[in-house]
């Protein structure tokens, strides 16, 4: 099984940018169409709800996947995992006994990997608001026997307690968004949002937080600001620049300002872990060809590790 995402990510880490860009251009113009045809043929066998046994850097776990969920589940069916660059960060920074918080947990890939890493002495707290995705998450939790490790909640996190509409994307449930229905084919559902600080205040430690909430990142960060000040966890954040523009363009800069206020150093995961120093320089590509990226946010005690 060839995982295109893993190959792309590995080459990007190993090769100079100019050579990587050349290889990527050749891939996109010559080879990609052929591979897409082969993938489409393989996906014809993915026609039912099932489990897949997978692993990342030796950490094994099982995951329920469904063709009805679209892109992410199909990607995992084809290649075993999704977002290897984020999974790498979990393997790098989590260890036995760590506490991991997964905000926007989706079907649970990151939470199950985290559970396999932190073990019986660690904890994982996961938040997923879409009811049927949450049920799928629970199926994976049970098949991995993580009931005492992974604690799941069928809510979204934000800066205040309320009910809100979420636009479910038909062809990619992982792209469902509170802030935008633009281009989404699917249904609108009502979800519960809870202020993160209230749900996390009883925890004695938090080592790492993953946030992937499709444009709602600023609200989540404001809602867990006290928690971040108290525990200073490492943060992996999906930065949804295009969605911020649709909201009015203010959230991108506000996110960076808030993280700097909390003494975090920020690095663009996709751009060779380049440190983010200029807000204007970092935000400019999102008004053109770039839609989102992942940011690694390190508190001062970890900044030397990049």
From TrEMBL:
Domain Methyltransferase FkbM: 102-264
PANTHER family: METHYLTRANSFERASE, FKBM FAMILY PROTEIN, SLL1173 PROTEIN
Signal peptide: none
Provenance organism: Candidatus Nomurabacteria bacterium CG1_02_43_90
Coiled-coil residue windows: none
Pfam families named in the record: Methyltransf_21 (PF05050)
Name under which the protein is recorded: Methyltransferase FkbM domain-containing protein
Gene3D superfamilies per the UniProt record, alphabetical: Vaccinia Virus protein VP39 (3.40.50.150)
């Amino acid at each position: 099984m060839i995982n295109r995402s893993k190959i792309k990510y590995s080459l990007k880490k190993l090769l100079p940018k100019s050579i990587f860009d050349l290889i990527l251009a050749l891939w996109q113009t010559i080879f990609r169409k052929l591979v897409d045809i082969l993938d489409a043929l393989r996906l014809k066998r993915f026609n039912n709800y099932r489990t897949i046994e997978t692993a990342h850097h030796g950490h094994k776990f099982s995951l329920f996947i469904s063709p009805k969920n679209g892109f992410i589940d199909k990607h995992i069916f084809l290649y075993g995992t999704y977002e290897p660059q984020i999974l790498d960060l979990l393997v790098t920074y989590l260890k036995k006994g760590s506490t991991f918080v997964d905000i926007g947990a989706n079907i649970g890939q990151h939470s199950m990997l985290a559970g396999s890493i932190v073990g019986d002495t660690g904890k994982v707290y996961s938040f997923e608001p879409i009811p049927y995705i949450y049920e799928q998450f629970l199926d994976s939790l049970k098949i991995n026997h993580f009931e005492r490790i992974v604690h799941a909640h069928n809510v979204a996190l934000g800066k205040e307690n309320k009910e809100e509409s979420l636009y479910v994307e038909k062809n990619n449930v992982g792209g469902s968004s509170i802030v935008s229905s633009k281009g989404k084919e699917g249904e609108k559902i009502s979800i519960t949002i809870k202020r993160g600080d209230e749900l996390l205040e009883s925890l004695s430690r938090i080592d790492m937080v993953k946030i992937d909430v499709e444009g709602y990142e600023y609200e989540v960060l404001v809602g867990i600001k006290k928690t971040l000040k108290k525990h200073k966890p490492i943060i992996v954040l999906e930065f949804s620049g295009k969605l911020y523009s649709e909201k009015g363009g203010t959230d991108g800069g506000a996110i960076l300002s808030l993280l700097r206020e909390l003494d975090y150093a920020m690095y663009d995961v996709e751009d060779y872990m380049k440190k983010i120093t200029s807000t204007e320089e970092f935000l400019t590509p999102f008004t053109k060809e770039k839609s989102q990226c992942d940011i690694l946010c390190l508190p001062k005690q970890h900044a030397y590790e990049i």
